[in-house]
Amino acid sequence: MAQRTELLQGTLDMLVLRTLLCGPLHGYGIAKSIQQVSNDSLQIEFGSLYPALKRLELKGWIASRWETSERNRRARFYRLTAAGRKQLVREQSKWQSLIDAIARVMQSDPARGES
Amino acid sequence: MTWLRKLQWLLPARRHAQERDMEAEIQSLKDIAGDDAAPVLGNLTLARENARAVWGWNWLAGLSADVRYALRTLAKDRAFTAIAISSLALGIGANAAIFSVIDALLLHSLPVRDPASLVELDGSDSSYFIYNRFLASSGRVFSGMLARMSDARDIDCGGGPVRGNVEVVTGSYFPTLGVRAWIGRTIGPNDDNRANPAQVAVISYGLWQHRFGGDASAIGRTIRVQRVPFAVIGVAPPEFFGVVVGEAPEVWLPLSSMNSVYPGRNWLDEPGMNFLELMGRLRPGVTMERASALLTPVLVQAELDRVGNVSEPVRAEIRRSKADLAPAATGISFLRYRFSKPLHIVFAMVAMALLLACVNLINLQAARVRERRKELAVRLAIGASRLRVARQVFTESALLALAGGALGLLMCRPVGQALLVLMSPGDALSLRLDVNSQVLAFVAGLSSAAAVLFGVGPAWRSTRGEILPAIQQGFGSAKALPATRLFGRALASLQVALSLVLVAGATLFATSLYKLLHVDLGLNRAHLLVLDVNPTDAGYQGDQAAALNRRIAVRLAPLPGVESVSFSSNGVFTGRNMDRDVEPVGQPKPSDPFAWVDKVGPRYFSTIGAHLTAGRDFDERDDAAGPKVMIVNERFARFYFAGQNPIGRTVAVGEFSKEPKIIRQIIGVVKDMRIEGSHQQPPRYFYVPAFQSPEMPFSTRFLIRTIGDPHGMIGSIRAAVRAEDPALSIDSLDTAEDLLDRAIGHDRLIAVLSGAFGVLALLLAAIGIYGLLSYEVARRTGEVGIRIALGARRSDILRLVLTEIAFLAVTGVAVGGIAALAAAKLVAGLVFGLQPNNPVVLAGSAVVLIGVALSAGFCPARRAARLDPMVALRQE
Predict the structure, then answer these.
(1) 3-state SS assignment for residue B203
(2) Mutating which of B54, B55, B57, B58 best tests the A interface, going by the most A Cβ atoms within 10 A?
C-alpha cells in the first residue's frame, strides 16, 4: 500500500472539482476516485469531503441531484457547473505557479539537491 | 449572495428538509460503500457537524439551544425571574417614560424648514411696538421675523361655540417658518394688514378632520371665532402644532384682525402691552451673539421712546437691558424653563434606581451561578468551551433584559402621561408622547446596557476556577476566590451608597414639598374659589364692566354656602400681575419706583383671609366718588416709608394708559401675601379700589369664600353667572387649592418620584445585603461551627457577622454621603425652605440606611449564631 500523504490545506476543493471534470459522481465515488487516481496515497475522509461538497455547492461551483446509480441505488450525484469549470482553471493555474515557485526554491539549494 | 442563502436556513422548514436530505445521502453512501463503509467514510458525526457549519446555522442551533435552556432554568426559578423582570421593567419603563417626556418637551425639533436657525427673544413678552422696531432694523441678521400670541377662544364651525386654542400670527409667521398649507394657502403678509385686516383663518389638520370630515370644500367656508366670521383659506399640515411646546392651536388668524376676537382691547396700539412672543430666523453665518449685539441698542432705544419722560434711575435700568436670544429649534416652551431641571434630576434618580436594580441582579445572578457551579463544571469537564458556557449564562441575562425592556416599553406611554398629569394637574398638556425611534433606540440601548451590566460579570465568573474541586465539593463549601468576595462586598457597599443618595434626595424633596404646602401664604386658601369671568369678551366696556362686576358679586353673595364674595383683576395663584410706578409724597425719590398692583373689590382682604396689620379693608365707601385710597403690604411700607407709620400718607400712582398720576392716601397695611404661589417671595404690593381705577380689558377674578366643600358650589355659581348674562364666558372656575397645586407641579413631580424611588432603593439595598450575607453565612458554616465548638458564645458570632454588615454599611454611607453632597449643588434652586446639603437630612438618611442594612443582615446573623456545631462540622 502506498504511503499516505497529508492533504495540503485548501487543495481538497480543487481535487473535487478536477475529479468531477470527468463526469457526475456521488460522494463515495468522488472519494474512491481520488484514492484510485492517487494510487491510494490520498485517502479522503468523508468527514472532510462532505462539508467541502456542501461548501462548493453553496458557492455555485457544483450542482447536485438525486439519481439512480449503475447498481440501481439512489444517490446524490454532483456535477461541475460552468462557474465551477472557470474556478478549476483559476485554482489550477494558482496551484501551478505555487508548485513552480516551491520547486525553484527547493532546487536552488545545492546542499539539498536532488536525492 | 451566500449570506442570503445562509439566511434561508433560519426557516425551520428549510433546515429540517436539509437535515433529512443529509441523512438520506449519508445513508445511501453507507449502502453503496457496504462493508468498506467504516474505514472510508470515517467519522460521520463530524461530517454532519462540519456540513452544518458550512450552512451557517451552527450558531443558530446553538443560540436556540441556549434560549431554550435559559427559558427552562428561568421557568424553574420563578421567584428570581419575577423579581428580575419586574425590577428591570420598572427601571427601564420609568427611564423610558421620562426620556419620552424630555424628548417631547426639550428635544423634539419643530416640523419646519431648517429649525436650527430659529431663535426666540428670550425672557419676557414684547409689545407690537417693539416687534415693529425690531422688524425695521433686524434685516442684517434675520432673514425673517415673526410674532405670535395664543389664547383660548370660542370657535364655531357651525355646531355651536367650542373653546379652543387660537393663535394670532403676523403675516410673516408661515413664510418664515417655511410651513406650507396642507390644502389651500397659509396666512401671508397681505392678510396681515392693519389698514384693512383680512378676516381669514387657517385651521388645524385636526379641526379639519373632526369638523369638516377632511373635505376639501372646507376651503372658503366660514367659521366664527368669538362670533366673528372668518373665511377658511387653508389647512395646516398634520404634524404642525404651532411653535409653542404643549399647545395645539386649532385656528390661526392674522394679527391685524385680533381686535375683532379680543373686543374692547387694542393691544396692537398699546406700546406698553407686552403680549407677543417674537421669533427670528438667523441669516446663514450669523451667530446668536452677533444678532443679540445688533438688536440690543434697538431694544434699548425702543424702550426709552416708549416710556417717555421717566426718572433717571428708570432710564438707567432700561439702558442695562439686553436683547437676549435663545435657540428655538424645539419651539418656544414655557414649560421648558420650569421643567427642564426637575426632569433631568428625576431622570438621574431613575437612572440610579435602574443601576441599583442591575447591581441587585448581578448579586442574584452570581448567587445562582454559584449554585449551579457543579453543573457548569461538569459541562466544562466533558468538553464545552468556556466561551460556550459563559454564553449560556449570558443568554439568560439577555433574555431577562429583553423581557424587562419590552415590558418597560409598554409602560412608557401610560407612565409618561401620568408624569404629565403630575407636572400640571388639571391642565391638560397637549404633548405628543410618541414611542418614536428615539425612544425605541433609548430603550434598546438601556436594555442592552443592563444585560451587559448584570450579565457579563456572572457569565465570566461562571467559568473561572478549577473544575475538579467544584465537581468534588459542590456548592456548599466551595472556596470563593478572595477577589470574588471583595467584589461582592464592593457591590453591597455600592448599593448602600446609591440608596443613600436616593434616600437623601427623597427626604430633601419631600421636606421641600412639605414646607411649600405649609408655608404661610398670608391668606386662607381653604374653601376659596376663584371664578374667572370675561366681561370684555361679552362686549362690556369701561364703567359697564365695573357695574357688571358689582352685579355678579351681588348675585353670588346670597347663594347658599357662600360666606363672602369679592373680586380683583389678578385673583390669587393665577400668575397674572401688573406693576405701576409710585412716588410717595414728601419722601426722597425712591431707588426703584415700581410696585405690583391689583384692583380689588370691597371686602377683598376679609374674603381671602388676609391679615390687615393696620387700618381698614376696602368697602362700599371706596367708590368712584369717594376719596382716592390704597392699601399697601408690609414690604411696600418698609421700602417707601422705612420706620414711619404709612397710614394716612399719600402716594402718587402712575395709572394705566399714561393718564395723569393720581394721589392716593394709604388707609391700611396688609401682611405680605404669596399671591403667585408658595415659591414667590412677596414683592412690594399695593391695592386700589376697583371703582377708583379705569377699567382694564381683562377678565375679572371673583373670589368666593364658601362655608363647606367648595367643589359642591361650582354648579350654582355657574348658574348665577349665566342668569346675569348668558353671553358671559367663564374662563375658569377652580379652587385656590387646585391653582396652588398647579404652581408647584414640578416640586410635586420631584417629591413624589424621588419618594417612590427612595423607598424602592431601600428595598433593593435590603434585598442585596440580605442575599450577600446569607451566602456569606452559608459559606462560612464550617468556620462558625469550629468557633462555636471552641467555645465562642452566640453573642460573639452575632457580633462577628453584624460587624461585617456595619463595615459594609459605613463604607457605603461614606461614599454615598460624598456623592450626595456633590449632587446637592445640582439641585440648588429646586428645594424650598432648606439648604440642599442640609446635615440633618443627610445624617437622618445615613441612620435609616445603616438601620436597614443591620436589619437586613440580622436574619442571616442569627442563623449563624444558632448553628449546631456538630452539623456544621460534619458538613465540612
Answers:
(1) strand
(2) B54
Report chain B residues whose CB lies below 8 A from the CB of A50: 26, 47-48, 50-51
Cell numbers at B58, concatenated: 451552527
Give the tens place of pLDDT for each residue, B35-70.
Answer: 665 556 667 777 777 777 766 666 677 788 888 888
| B172 SS3 class | coil
What is the model's pTM? 0.70
Crossing angle of the two packed helices B745-779 and B794-826, in degrees rounded to 10: 150
Residue B625, SS3 per DSSP: coil
Determine whether the interchain pair A69/B32 forms a contact, defined as Cβ–Cβ distance below 8 Å: yes
Name the residue of chain A whose CA is nearest to B5's CA.
A58
Q: Where are the domains of chain A?
A: 12-108
Extract the C-alpha cell encoding A25.
459522481
Architecture of domain A12-108: Orthogonal Bundle (1.10)
Between the alpha carbon of residue A51 and those of residues A31, A33, B39, B41, the distances in Å are 13, 18, 18, 13
Strand order in the sheet with A25-26: A25-26, A74-80, A62-68
Amino acid B658: pLDDT = 57
On chain A, the residues whose CB falls within 8 A of the CB of B43 are 45, 47
Task: Judge: B47–A28 Cβ closer than 8 Å, yes or no.
Answer: no
**Closest of B220, B202, B221, B204 to residue B157, by C-alpha:** B221
SS3 state at B190: coil
* Mutation target vs A (from B8, B14, B32; most A CBs, 10 A cutoff): B32
On the question of pLDDT at B352 being above 70, the answer is: yes
Residue B353 has pLDDT above 80, yes or no: yes
Cβ separation A45–B43 shorter than 8 A: yes
Of A26, A28, A51, the CB nearest to B53: A51
pLDDT tens track for B716-769: 998 999 899 888 888 788 888 888 887 777 788 778 888 888 887 888 778 777
C-alpha span between B363 and B342 (Å, rounded):
32
Amino acid B137 reads S
Those residues with Cβ within 8 angstroms of residue A29's Cβ, 6 or more apart along the chain or in another chain = none
Does residue B325 contact residue B122 with C-beta atoms inside 8 Å? yes
Mean pLDDT over each residue of chain B, to the nearest integer:
84
At residue A1 the predicted structure's pLDDT band, cuts being 50, 70 and 90, is very low
Could you tell me where the DSSP H helices lie in B77-197? 78-102, 128-137, 173-177
Closest residue of A to B1, CA-based?
A: A59
Give the Å distances, CA to CA, from A18 to A30, A70, B315, B464. Answer: 10, 22, 100, 49
Across the interface, which of B29, B47, B55 has its CB nearest the CB of A47? B47
Cβ <8 Å between A47 and B43: yes
Q: What are phi and psi of B152, to 5 degrees?
A: -75, 135
Q: Does B50 touch chain A (CB under 8 A)?
A: yes
- Of the candidates B339, B190, B239, the one whose C-alpha atom is nearest the C-alpha of residue B750 is B339
For B232-269, give the DSSP string: EEEE--TT---SBTT---SEEEEGGGHHHHSTT--GGG
What is the least distance, in Å, from the CA of B468 to any CA of chain A? 33
Strands B228-235 and B200-203: parallel
CB contact under 8 A, B28 and A74: yes
Query: Could you tell me which chain B residue has the CA closest to the CA of A25?
Result: B29
Q: For testing the chain A interface, which of B8, B41, B44, B55 should be mutated: the one with the most A CBs within 10 Å?
A: B41
Task: Express each pLDDT in A17-53 by its tens digit.
Answer: 999 988 888 888 888 888 888 888 887 777 778 888 8
Contact B51 A74 (CB under 8 A): no
With an 8 Å Cβ cutoff, is B25 touching chain A? yes
Nearest to A47 among B33, B50, B53 (CB): B50
